[in-house]
Design a protein that fits this description.
This protein is an alpha+beta fold. Helix content is 28%, strand content 28%. The strands form eight sheets. Strands 3, 7, 8, 9, 10, 11, 12, 21 and 24 form a nine-stranded mixed beta sheet that branches. Strands 16-14-15-17-20 form a five-stranded mixed beta sheet, with helices on both faces. A five-stranded mixed beta sheet has the order 28-27-29-30-31, sandwiched between helices. Bound molecules: adenosine-5'-triphosphate and magnesium ion.
Length: 579
């Protein structure tokens, strides 16, 4: 490919819309352009990287026994009504009507459509197992699209759905998918961790997320420093308990705390530790308000709370609801006197607390020296907070570290949730009808490219992992008016292309500095510079983008050396096993 013909508009500065480095660099490198909120066009080199990820995904999915299909993006409402998700899915589901007034949606995921396909075709246990996938555009009307391809509204996803006879067979498929995912992200050159995850609105029995480790990741994961345990903090059990205190019970007393609402304000004003304060949070769900209590230095985990109450739609209440539930506005609400009026759930860490501070359910007042059993009844205790580095590893009791990650893939054991709702059944070997046991497996293709950039960059630009770089090698001809240089550049380019190397020939009539800057910005793994040295001693420079190391070689040896270097770069992968 000739640079002079390529649609590759690079930018010196990133547009103000870009908040994180991958978004900035993908815009600057001319990979993507924004059309509207959460909607992006992929320019030629952006699409090249995307297609390289897709190629790896196709190879590994095929290797794991999955077959590619392509399903409609526009989906009829009836199917979603049948699964019960038409009402449950919420505003991320973009609903539309056709000219006849029939309801449809743009597919945010394809469980319904694939289950409909399979229920019509599969009859017997002999038709199973089946694993079908597609690489296609999804639409989710995200509340806050941001970070470019990382969280867009329209995005390319690989979604696979497996169909098995029973849980045991699903387990085998799940492990095969897990292994395929490890190989996919290894081959993409990413530093990632598979972590235990919540099953969210899709539902199901078990799931793992594949997290690319990066400071800007929207997810937080808890990793054990001693064993292989890793989980999304949404799910990781918080098991740390402080010992029962031997302190005497103080008298409960009211204290005036004018205008002191936040934990910080109250502890500073009363000169107490945050761990002796109990935060009172009011949530609202279809069954009415719920009062959740957590320690001042802990954070409420809404995913755990939702799981506990078994309702998906649980949200922090607005001021009016807090007033009607507690008789007092937020900041001064407290659990004393609320028993019997509303469900109160206290975090496990509060079990051992004595003489704590709570809101007095009266504006500008708090209660000090509060004790369970005496001042308020013992409440229902549960794990409803986020794990902290002070909590032990839930598997081995070791030390836990918190890290940030970008979720690039997700595997779920769905069980019979969709097959039962949509009546997707098969006849087993004894002639009995049974629901098909399903799994589903997603990879964000665009998010994977963005995560690779987020994880691999320096002050000059992107440092693409070689397997997903838009080009393997750029050949920069320093002076296009020099016939010898252009000839050698063309020759090395065709030799490399004959070996299957993706080459970009920088044949622009630009200054060398401009060419080098662009090559570094785009992050092409190897640059061959055909310049002054050619005239001096007949050699060209081969420079590795990641390490900055360079060698000078004769024109005859250049293509072989580039090919060897690329092979070396691509084969240095990590190994990951099923955990
Ligand atoms: P998130 O928690 O980030 O919203 P999700 O759990 O809703 O993602 P899944 O339903 O598991 O996502 O979708 C499978 C994969 O699709 C995700 O692992 C992610 O890589 C990708 N993905 C999901 N939402 C988006 C989005 N808005 N933009 C880009 N990629 C996305
Ligand atoms: Mg997910």
């Amino acid at each position: 490919m000739r640079y002079s013909k390529l649609f590759l508009p690079t930018l010196k500065e990133a547009p103000a819309e870009a908040e994180i480095v991958s978004h900035r660099l993908m815009l600057r490198a001319g990979m993507i352009r924004r059309l509207s909120s959460g909607l992006y066009s992929y320019l030629p080199i952006g699409l090249r990287s995307l297609m390289k990820v897709e190629k790896i995904v196709r190879e590994e999915m095929g290797r794991a026994g999955a077959q590619e299909v392509l399903l409609p993006m526009v989906q009829p409402a009836e199917l979603w009504q049948e699964s019960g998700r038409w009402d449950r899915y919420g505003k991320e589901l973009l609903r539309l009507k056709d000219r006849h007034g029939r309801d449809y949606c743009l597919g945010p995921t394809h469980e319904e459509v694939i289950t409909d396909l399979v229920r019509r075709e599969v009859r017997s246990y002999k038709d199973l197992p089946l694993n079908l996938y597609q690489i296609h555009t999804k639409f989710r009307d995200e509340i806050r699209p941001r970070f470019g391809l990382m969280r867009s509204r329209e995005f390319v996803m690989k979604d696979a759905y497996s169909f098995d006879v029973d849980d045991e067979a699903l387990e085998i498929t799940y492990q095969a998918m897990y292994g395929a995912y490890c190989r996919i992200f290894e081959r993409c050159g990413l530093d990632f961790r598979p972590v235990e995850a919540d099953t969210g609105s899709i539902g199901g029995h078990a799931s793992h997320e594949f997290m690319v480790l990066a400071e800007t990741g929207e997810d937080q994961i808890a990793c054990c420093t001693q064993c292989s345990y890793a989980a999304n903090v949404e799910l990781a059990p918080a098991l740390g308990l402080t010992a029962y205190s031997c302190a005497d019970e103080e008298d409960m007393r009211r204290v005036h705390t004018p205008g002191k609402r936040s934990v910080e304000e109250v502890i500073a004003f009363l000169n107490v530790s945050p761990s002796s304060l109990v935060k009172t949070l009011v949530f609202i769900c279809k069954n009415g308000p719920i009062v959740a209590l957590v320690r001042g230095d802990h954070s409420i985990n809404e995913v755990k709370l939702k799981r506990l109450v078994g309702i998906e739609d649980v949200a922090l209440a607005d001021s009016a609801t807090v007033v009607s539930a507690t008789g007092c506005e937020p900041g001064f609400a407290g659990p004393v006197g609320l028993a019997g009026r509303t469900r109160i759930i206290a975090d496990n860490a509060l079990k051992t607390l004595k003489n704590f501070v709570v809101g007095a359910n009266e504006p500008d007042w708090h209660l000090l020296g509060v004790n369970w059993g005496r001042d308020l009844p013992w409440p229902e205790f549960a794990d409803i907070r986020f794990i902290t580095p002070d909590d032990p590893c839930p598997r081995c009791g070791g030390r836990v570290e918190l890290k940030r990650g970008i979720e690039v893939g997700h595997v779920f054991k769905l069980g019979t949730k969709y097959s039962e709702a949509l009546h997707a059944v098969y006849i087993d070997d004894s002639g009995k009808e049974r629901p098909i046991v399903m799994g589903c497996y997603g990879i964000g293709i665009g998010r994977t490219v963005a995560a690779a950039v987020e994880q691999n960059h320096d002050s000059l630009g992107i440092v693409f992992p070689a397997p997903i770089a838009p080009f393997d090698c750029v050949i920069s001809i320093v002076d296009m008016t020099d016939d010898a240089m252009s000839f050698v550049g063309e020759r090395i380019c065709s030799e490399l292309e004959a070996k299957g190397v993706d080459c970009l020939l920088d044949d622009r009539r630009e200054r060398p500095g401009v060419k080098f800057k662009d090559a570094d910005l785009i992050g092409i793994p190897i640059r061959v510079t055909v310049g002054r040295r050619l005239r001096e001693d007949g050699r060209v420079e081969i420079k590795v983008r990641a390490s900055g190391e360079s060698v000078f070689l004769s024109v005859d040896d250049a293509a072989d050396e580039v090919f060897k270097m690329l092979k070396d770069i691509c084969s240095s992968r990590r190994v990951c096993s099923f955990k």
